[in-house]
Amino acid sequence: MRSAKKMKFFLKKNENNKQIVMSAFANNSDVPSLKKTDAKRAFRYLDFIYKVQARKVIASLLIATQLISLASVPAMAASRIKDLVDFEGIRENQLVGYGLVVGLNGTGDSLNNSPFTKQSLQALLERLGVNTREADLRTANVAAVMVTGNLPPFSTQGTRMDITVSAIGDAKSLQGGTLLVTPLLAADGNTYAVGQGPVAISGFKAEGESASIVRGVPTVGRISNGAIIEREVKYALKDRRTMRLALRNPDLTTAKRIAAAINTYTSEKTANAIDPATVRLDVPYSYRGDIIGLLTDIEQLRIKPDQQAKVIIDENTGIIVMGRDVRISTVAIAQGNLTVTIAETPVVSQPEGLAPESAETVVVPRTTLGVTDDKDKKLAILSTGVTLRDLVDGLNALGIGPRDMISILQAIKSAGALQAEIEVI
């Protein structure tokens, strides 16, 4: 309204230019009805208004450009915090129980070799009113098993969970068996679930008089939704004022980046990295009573995780896994094999035609020795700070296989030229 009053004051004398000014201000809501015009001052004011509007448009374009540039970052450049941490209290609990699987087609435990199966079967029958203490039980349709499962977080009473059944005796297969009622206990000794149901296995075993075949592991099975939860684990998540985020791969840099991303999102210092594996989160006042909403928002934040340069070696299978940050200093590598070959080729020696009668045919030993020292192998030099690709290309150029590469990497580490940790599994 102040701009409208100023325009009324400016536009007083030049009535001839009224139509020009009115047409110029036709789309400007700041100028309502005008009766008199001052063209010079009016156009100056009009220029001022359009400059202010232009600045707003430019600012909007800059913000949009930044948003577009952020949206164009590849999805693989960063990971969600949800995939990097575990939230305190939101965890599974392991359960275990002992039970019997019945209904096996002669593939169960032999009671003579598995006394625990016999005792368990007798105790079960006694609880059902059948006395078998003096009887000689001979059956191969029962197997003693261990039942394991993970109690999901915040599971309510009456919901179901999956369980795994594993034979502990000399049963050949659990195919076609049914697990009887089995209590599942936690580390505190309390029963949290009860399992029962038909066992599904992924393997099989077949045999004949002189041959047999086994595929998979027929002595381990699974029962989907085979246990009913009878006890809940109490945890008041909504009343928490602080929360700890546990990094799945502890790292100082990653923990610091997670805390910084959370603080930027909440616009206050609510997160603090207290060690490489833990980030402490103080629930902001605006999220009191709605910690679920806070954790939901934090889960979707993206950061670029850091990792330690590491080389993983499995000597049993010859597998080598190297991280992208593995670097080496200048080092010379030569690899060669000394091969000694010994071949025995016996020769039969027979007597000549005029030999005496006492002459006999004998076998004369003949040994052939050979030595190969791979003289064509050359000395290769790997320069300082080479990347993982250069390192692999250099070792492949020497014709080195996985087994020899393991020894070479360990030798480079011993020489102090490998800036990475070697972990043998």
| Largest beta-sheet details | 6 strands, antiparallel, barrel
Q: Give the DSSP E fraction (strand runs of 2 or more residues).
A: 25-35%
Using only CA atoms, what is the Rg?
A: 40 Å
- Terminal residue distance: 78 Å
Oligomer: single chain
SS elements, strand count: 26
Number of domains: 4
Spatial arrangement of strands, main beta sheet: 3-4-5-11-7-6
Helix proportion range: 25-40%
Q: Supply the number of helical segments.
A: 8
Estimated structural class: alpha+beta
On the 0 to 100 scale, the average pLDDT is 77
**Principal-axes shape call:** flat
Poorly predicted segments = 1-37, 61-76
Structural write-up:
This protein has 425 residues and is of the alpha+beta class. The chain folds into 4 domains: 2-70; 93-229, no CATH class; 242-303; 310-339 and 365-424, no CATH class. Helices cover 26% and strands 30% of the residues. It is built from 8 helices and 26 strands. It has a 6-stranded antiparallel beta barrel. It has a 4-stranded antiparallel β-sheet with strand order 2-12-14-13, with helices on one face. Strands 17-16-26 form a 3-stranded mixed β-sheet, with helices on one face. Strand 4 and strand 5 (160-167) form a beta hairpin. The chain is flat and about 115 Å long. The protein starts with a helix and ends with a strand. 18% of the residues are buried. Residues 1-37 and 61-76 have low confidence and may be disordered.
